[in-house]
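User: Quick sanity check before I run a bigger batch. Here is a single chain. Can you write out its predicted 3D structure?
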Amino acid sequence: MTPGRRSSTFTRLLRHGFTDASAAERLLDSAELAAVRDDPVLLEALGATADPDLALHGLVRLLEAQPGPTARRELLDTLIAAKPLRDRLLGVLGASAALADHLARHPRDWEALVTYEPRDLHPGVAEFERGLAEATDPVSLRVAYRRCLLSIAARDVCGTTDVAETAAELADLATATLRAALALAERAAPEDAARCRLAVIAMGKCGGHELNYVSDVDVIFVGEAADETDEAKALRSATKLASHMMRICSETTVEGSIWPVDANLRPEGRNGPLVRTLSSHLAYYQRWAKTWEFQALLKARPVAGDLDLGAEYVAALEPLVWKAAERENFVTDVQKMRRRVVENIPAAEIDRELKLGPGGLRDVEFAVQLLQLVHGRADASLRSGTTLDALQALASGGYVGREDAARLDEAYRFLRSMEHRIQLYRLRRTHLVPEDEADLRRLGRSLGLRTDPVTGLTREWKRHAGVVRRLHEKLFYRPLLDAVAQLAPGETRLSAEAARERLVALGYTDPAAALRHLEALASGVSRKAAIQRTLLPVLLGWFADSADPDAGLLNFRKVSDALGKTPWYLRLLRDEGAAAENLARVLSAGRLAPDLLMRAPEAVALLGDGDGGGLEPRGRGPLEQEILAAAGRADNAEDGVRAARGVRRRELFRTAAADIVDSYGTETKPAEADQGALVDRVGAAVSDLTAATLAGTLRAVVRDGWGDTLPTRFAMIGMGRFGGHELGYGSDADVVFVHEPQEGVDEREAADAANKVVAEMRRLLQIPSADPPLLIDADLRPEGKSGPLVRTLKSYEAYYRRWSLVWESQALLRAEPVAGDEELGRRFVELIDPLRYPQRGLGEDAVREIRRLKARMESERLPRGADPKLHTKLGPGGLSDVEWTVQLLQLRHGWAEPGLRTTRTRAALAAAEAAGLLGAEEAGILDEAWVLATRVRNAVMLVRGRAGDTFPTESRELAAVGRYLGYGDGHAGDMLDAYRRTARRARAVVEELFYGG
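Assistant: Done. Predicted structure follows.
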């Protein structure tokens, strides 16, 4: 061949889609293709395939495998003369290396692609049975199966059949194959066959008439005795036949395997008998079956063996399937199933998963099946096992919006086509989109994307997955809005009863009220109602993910009513991605955050991404600056404190909302895994906010009563969890007050002024209003409630020198100035440091006294009737246990270990570990218990709206606490067990370190 010709051929090959033109030239120059190498028809046909290089290589192999020159000439003549064969054969060779291998082993099987008659275009079970009829053993069955598969693939890649028709043909071929395999098993054991009636029920995609190229074929077996045979003997025979049939299909031979036959959807799964009688099946489903098992039965279809027995099976179980939505645990089961199960997908693969990943095939299939279960009991038209047929029926009945159904149908067909072509290449079971560029190029070209197949494929795949991801939730909820809104003439709407059924199925306990809320929000022709109709389908799904969907929807209506005329509100929810989901999580997570929001609904702006400050907690400095400025602008103390309490309410909402969002996670951001970090953020934010509020209140009171200068210098010292930066949502502000008369001021005048300041601060912070009160608790002062409320620094010094008890030294470990005169606060700290970090540590008498006090507290202070093992504060392994253990270490070793001189429990615990005062495992156990107990207390306050030290007893509140702690629906028992286990381990460490050390 001349260089010029080579160059011309090389260019032509590249133009026709070959990627290795040099190799293609060599193949075209081979002896097998000598007669047709210059025929433009061949080159055009090869260029039309998904992978021209692969098709040419497969063709040469097929020609080489022909038994002689005559057979080779026959193949080439037919290939050039007959366009249907040319398109089919080369199409298969360019899409499937596995079928090219089959043709090379069985070189006459290309003749199966020659016929082109109407009945050949859409074969059914009978045609496939004829194609398998000559199989006499597992090996010949595999060869015949591949020959039939060849014809299905040819029609598929040529576009003669669409993806749904291809899937149906694959299911029909599977049916014929199961029948042939069972016939072989019966022929091998005629006595067993005579003793029993055996029905094979197809499940899954085979049962639904929508099989993949390579998939497990799910089945269930039903057996009965034939004539007078003993039932036990009949079942043994049926089991032998069923097992043999499975092996015939599944085992690997010289011709490979067909596909695995999977019987694990049977009652009790792999632990149950392989074959049961009809009555045994019925008894199991009536008593023991779970919701997912009824969902699986949607696709049950008799396919082989005794078809009359199979029909009896379906008829007997069908009524139970359509009553599944009435089961007691249906809502809980549905909520579990609705969440995508992606935990088992390796992180590196989740973005390539066509089936289980976000926006994947399983999303469509599950959504359709769930709607069938909810509405199919009253509407028999929905009872199809085929996903696309069922989706069409749901749209026709008004259960799904027609436009949504059409878009979902298109996306599902595209994703299934991708799955088919991926599997066809090697005939391997996979749902992963390949990463190799050559594989992506072949896949894109096979789907008709020829200009830039890799980029085009990725774009179309992501687009369709995005459609599924957006629509699969709206599918449940948009028709609910259509049921209460004005529809265009001719549109079908969900009936009131169907809407009620769907809301109940999705976890709403008062569907009538929910429908009233939807009608109020979404009906009418205003722009506001139109935006609500866009938002609500997604919001309803987020509410349904919570423990109390009804409360979420009610709260959303209240906020919307309050802000409905505010132009920015709906725009914020529509346009800022995070705002709507954050709002849904906050409104359905409990009472505290919605209550705070309802008192000033404009705080919803904090939930967005924009200029509202977001959910990041603000530091002490900016908070104090804002509150002091607000108090300074007020005309009197009451107005100033009202302004300070308003800022506190808003910031409490910010903190609670951030905590809820971080604990629940969102669609774009997973839940915070570090529980300790969540606790620290809340503790720091609430403590800073409380300190800033007290500073502002002090400024307002002093300014109103004394002008710019109080007759005495005045400071507030935070104690307990306040001093430790560990306040929870329901915590009081534990403080002690210290003052020092200004120069030249009488001590009595100074004391009177200080006491008036304290009394006025306490009054103003508790005045009933829309803002939550802030209670000041000064019981940790010297002499407790019996002692003076305010003391001078000298009085504290005299008291501590003469009367101080060991419990007061322990309480002072958490003391930290929080408001007022900074220099006076610093001097107070200098005064108490020798008490809380005594030189050379505590004496043995003092240690015994602390242990005695702790033991008395445990026996006397636990509320009557409370379960000690679940009491987060005073129970074994609770907050008190951990804190007293850490504080004993601080009292004994703080003088020598600077790291222990901190008011914060977790920091002191880490310092004790670093100093070798306890082991890493012990420190970890105590830290975990303290964090968990604190999280539970925060959760109780968020859920109930009032503080509590024990888990709620009401089931929905308990479930909400569980969701906050990361437990799914139905796992409240696991949460309680985990708490007991964590507390028990902590108590064992406390026994050793506190009582035994």
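The beta strands are 196-202, 217-225, 261-262, 275-276, 301-305, 712-718, 733-741, 776-777, 790-792, 816-820.

User: Great, the batch can go ahead then.
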